[in-house]
Amino acid sequence: YEACARFLKASKDFKAACDLLEIAVSFDPTNSELHYKYAKYLRNKGDKDKAAEHFRKCLELQPDHSLAEFWLGTFGGSDAVPSKCPENYIKKLYNGYASKFEEHLVKDLRYQTPTVINALLQQVTEERGWNSTNNAALDLGCGTGLSGLAFKVHARSMVGVDLSEAMIEEARKKDIYNEVHVADVLGFLREKLIQSENYNPPGEDGHSQPIHQFDLFIACDVFVYIGDLSEVMQTISLLVKNTTLPRGDDSDQPSAIIVFSTEKQLSGDTPFTLNDTGRYTHSKQYILDICRQNDLEVCKIEERTIRQNKGLPVLGFLVVCSIVV
């Protein structure tokens, strides 16, 4: 049944695929994965109510099924919205997408976020008189390296992190990163934070001093996969505080700069929304609040069209922040 359903789905015959999986579920009603797959096909067919019913049945049979919880959350309503996308969803999506990623993103979706946000950073640094050409940069969710190419003018060194092995392999080919790591963005930041808390090398006076790690954090088209930004922002802030010596009063240079993009929340009064695209949108007020709570100054926030979706513009926020220790 599943093999036939996959064939029918590839042929865009979602109704026939759903009919087959409905029969399969009737024969094996306690199979959580069958309920999940049936729900996904129903979702593609446009039958959200019935899809939600089978996502819930999947979760009833297997409460830790993160993908069922995630896709159920895209329907809104009273169902709980997960705080971020499941790692296995992102890995599968981008491992199968890496070879054609750049052509599709730039040509078809007209994605220009790294270039535009780099121009905003340049504008901020010129206005404030900052030196922004000698940074140790961390490119979070680096993908194939599009953001690395845009921001390399600001970096003396650059580390790239991405959850997809295939995307990292494409990034390696550009030869712009000193290091690349296959890792979850938040997990990588947590690991660096733990290292910073456990390792303080002695200074010239024999006392421990922080070890400097990163002073430019880049997250282009990454926070669309994280709804609750509190932990990632807090971890970046703590990492900078743990690894940077206090700034002298005679310097205007920030301890670190953080640049990122989000998609704009178009309605509702919640901090973030999980849309049926499988991407999160954030409100402007939430972005301002989460930065303020973590001692990040929002130097510039601009609303822009960040890409196209089915020929329509997708609005987002481009943000440049700084932190001083």
Compact description:
It contains 13 helices and nine strands. With about 325 residues, it is of the alpha/beta class. The termini are far apart.
Q: Could you list the spans in which at least 5 consecutive residues all have pLDDT below 50? A: none
Q: Class by helix and strand content?
A: alpha/beta
**How many domains, in number, for the residues?**
2
Percentage of residues assigned to helices = 40-55%
DSSP helical segment count? 13
CATH fold title of the largest domain: Rossmann fold
Specify the CATH architecture of the largest domain. Answer: 3-Layer(aba) Sandwich
Supply the key terms:
Methyltransferase type 12 domain-containing protein; 2 domains; alpha/beta; Rossmann fold; TPR_2; Serine Threonine Protein Phosphatase 5, Tetratricopeptide repeat; 325 residues; 9 strands; 13 helices
